[in-house]
Amino acid sequence: xxxxxxxxxxxxxxxxxxxxxxxxxKESPQTELFAKNGRDLEKACVLQKIxxxxxxxxxxxFPTVAKNPALLKNSKGSPLFQLHFAAxxxxxxxxxxxxxxxxxxxx
Length: 107
What we know:
2 domains, 4 helices, two-stranded antiparallel ribbon
């Protein structure tokens, strides 16, 4: 098994879907001598697109999701991760998300 295939399987588990691959990668217009499976892939998205995809997954699972995920960066300004907030309780979720949105705005 190729190392890239292992990472793809892991991300399939994280996202709970396989459609992410076609959104994040595209076939390269240049052909490479050592391309795997006769094709070479290149990244077709930016960090924001990955966050938007994950946010959409959360919205498909949870009844309430904060609209403003926070991007947390290290001391040099490089992104570390994106913090999302979702609530599974419909009654309390609206209040919880309102509080979370306020906190996420402060980050």
